[in-house]
């Protein structure tokens, strides 16, 4: 029988989960720089990658300081979306009456642009952190509710009936059957929510703020300082990736059986 060759070290590195996105990012940056050189795009329209890197290097302390208010508002808004979104999803999934009253209003609320109502939060709550937290909460709330509702509704009724037949209380049945079965869907919604919460925090900073990455971007647009604006976009992208990674790590700790099954399917494909 022929021996199966073990993958080389280079093959293992190239197949790592973080390498392929990094290589693709390098290709995008190279294409970006090449396009600027070939088509002679002026710097006041699109800055070169070198200019953006130079701003990141020289203004890193200031950008890091400005990223803290955005991060804080994002995390607070995301936690609020999870804190309120999951119980609301439980009520919607558990009651047809609640679903008929609440769910259409949730869908309707998503048609209202958050940038249009964000100035109201500034009028009501001032220029502090609260308007940014509310904006982050509003953008992150809906994905949590929708995903959690689908997760709770996908529970096999036979499993619930079997648990109740074993004289399990309603709370015990929910903790033993409904909640574990819905956790993969809940975490899917949380991953979407945490990235949208970043957008919500920036929207709040656009409307009225004197700090944060959104404030840096607004100030840069006003002075046509595009390298700084692109550097702020890089910071926002990194913030979203880091928060998404944190939620993914928590998912691996909470529901390791689902994550391992998902990884096996991805590896097989």
Q: How would you characterize this protein structure?
A:
This protein is mainly α and 269 residues long. Helix content is 82%, strand content 0%. The chain folds into 2 domains: 30 residues; 213 residues, Orthogonal Bundle (MetI-like fold). The C terminus is likely disordered.
Q: Runs with pLDDT <50, length 5+? A: 265-269
The main pleated sheet reads as: none
SSE order, as H and E? Answer: HHHHHHHHHHHH
> What is the CA-based Rg, rounded?
23 Å
The top-level CATH class of the largest domain is: Mainly Alpha
| Average pLDDT figure | 81
H/I helix tally: 12
Portion in helices: over 70%
- What is the SS-derived class? mainly alpha
* Total tally of structural domains: 2
Which percent range describes the beta-strand content? under 5%
- Overall geometry comes to globular
CATH topology of the largest domain: MetI-like fold
Layout of secondary structure:
Layout: H1 9-14, H2 19-39, H3 49-58, H4 60-94, H5 96-109, H6 114-125, H7 130-153, H8 157-165, H9 170-207, H10 213-222, H11 226-254, H12 256-268
Helix pairs in contact: 3-11, 4-5, 4-7, 4-9, 4-10, 4-11, 6-7, 6-9, 7-9, 8-9, 9-10, 9-11, 10-11, 11-12
């Amino acid at each position: 029988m022929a021996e199966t060759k073990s993958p080389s070290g280079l093959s293992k590195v190239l197949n790592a989960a973080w390498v392929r996105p990094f290589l693709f990012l390098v290709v995008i940056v190279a294409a970006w720089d090449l396009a600027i050189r070939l088509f002679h795009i002026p710097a006041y329209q699109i800055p070169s990658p070198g200019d953006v890197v130079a701003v990141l290097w020289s203004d890193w302390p200031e950008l890091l300081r400005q990223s803290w208010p955005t991060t804080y508002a994002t995390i607070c808004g995301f936690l609020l979306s999870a804190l309120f979104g999951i119980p609301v999803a439980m009520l919607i999934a558990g009651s047809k009456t609640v679903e008929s009253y609440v769910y259409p209003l949730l869908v309707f609320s998503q048609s209202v642009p958050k940038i249009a109502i964000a100035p109201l939060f500034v009028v009501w709550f001032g220029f502090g952190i609260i308007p940014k937290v509310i904006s982050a909460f509003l953008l992150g709330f809906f994905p949590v509710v929708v995903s959690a509702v689908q997760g709770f509704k996908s529970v096999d009724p036979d499993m619930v009936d079997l648990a109740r037949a074993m004289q399990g209380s309603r709370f015990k049945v929910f903790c033993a059957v409904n909640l574990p079965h819905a956790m993969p869907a809940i975490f899917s919604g949380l991953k979407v929510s945490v990235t949208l919460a970043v957008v919500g925090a920036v929207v709040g900073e656009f409307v009225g703020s004197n700090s944060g990455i959104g404030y840096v971007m607004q100030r840069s647009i006003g002075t046509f300082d595009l390298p700084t604006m692109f550097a702020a976009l890089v910071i926002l992208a990194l913030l979203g990736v880091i928060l998404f990674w944190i939620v993914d790590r928590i998912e691996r700790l909470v529901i390791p059986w689902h994550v391992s099954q998902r990884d096996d399917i991805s590896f097989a494909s």
